Amino acid sequence: MTHAAHIASIEHELDGFHQSLAVYRQQMGAWYSRALDSVSHAADMPSLLGMDRVVRMGDSHATASMADPDFMGSVAICQLGGELKIESKFESAYDVPIGGIPVEVVGLDDGSSTVVMLDEHGRGSHYCTAGGRYQVRVQGGVSEQQVEALFASYAGLTADLEQWLRSQWTGFKPHWEVSTASAIGNGLLAGSWAAIMDVWGSIKLVQAILEDPLKYAEQLGAEAAKLAQIATDAPKVMEQAMLLASDEAALFLLVRTAMLWLDALPPGQIAQVGAGFVVALLIDLVIGAVLTIALPAAGVAYLSVRLVKYGAQMLKAALGFVEALLKILTRFMQAVDRYKAVAVRGVVG
Predict the structure, then answer these.
(1) Domain ends where: 115, 141, 167?
(2) pLDDT tens digits, residue range 123-170?
């Protein structure tokens, strides 16, 4: 690829970046249902994948995938106290709640239905008839309008990422214009959908790290214990990180951002990374960015261990990448409750 062609390619991708999620939605039908859980993706919406949720009501509890389209809990018997306690959380090594969402309590004996809004700790209660049988239903279907509203909520994140990428390209472009490198570009944009399919499973490693940080002490060092402590001391922070780690649409935007940024890097900088390692670098960038939501130092520690082999210059650039994305993602995650209200539901109904 010539210098001019590479520059044109980057600018073409920047001009189309605002359409990233439209492309994402079109492509899901083609390959996502085969690559991941078909039910949620056939519904044309981002789902909370890979992490199971646990719902307890009274003396019963049930576990289901976050993408389960119609999650009914086990049957609970109302005791003499006349109140059923409800709790909703991620299934992980720590008690990280999924709060601020409505659940439906169904009376199996009288056919009654009551919506209970869980608090920020994922807890709620329902007054019941002693001896009665009840089930809790987590969410239910959502309307097409709600799905459209959900995707619209990513507009700010998309715009912020595009603005940042353009600011980066302003600095990178002059290097490409004067470069004498014979090998232009690292090829990430070519066959980009194939590249995304290749990395998607690996990116879900971040979910496993958040679920049990101490298992990943080798990658996180001393920050593993601090990350685990956050789950206990600041569960709201960990909940946000887990939601981001499970948000396919947001992760897709992060992958596209990292791909475009890597392709735009000055040729002398990306040359430090062998062609066979570019995809691994892409994965690490996205994982590092997500980890910073829970604990910035954890993202830094992870990248420092993973990227040291690429040299100080590449590591410095990568740390700058996650630092910039932390500011952008923090603004996005401030809207997590609005996102969560729709995204934890299973399918359009």
Answers:
(1) 141
(2) 999 999 989 999 888 764 445 665 566 677 788 899 999 999 999 999
| pLDDT tens, position by position, 118-135 | 888 889 999 999 899 998
Q: Is 191 exposed, middle or buried (0-12, 13-18, 19+ CB in 10 A)?
A: exposed
The dihedral built from the CA positions of residue 75, 81, 86 and 91, taken in this order, carries a sign that is: negative
Structure pTM? 0.74
* Count: domains in the chain: 2
Q: Residue ranges of the alpha helices (H) in the chain?
A: 3-16, 20-27, 33-35, 38-42, 144-152, 155-178, 192-203, 205-211, 217-220, 223-233, 235-245, 248-264, 267-270, 278-294, 296-307, 312-333, 336-343
Residue 229 shares a structural domain with residue 303: yes
Range of the domain at 73: 52-141
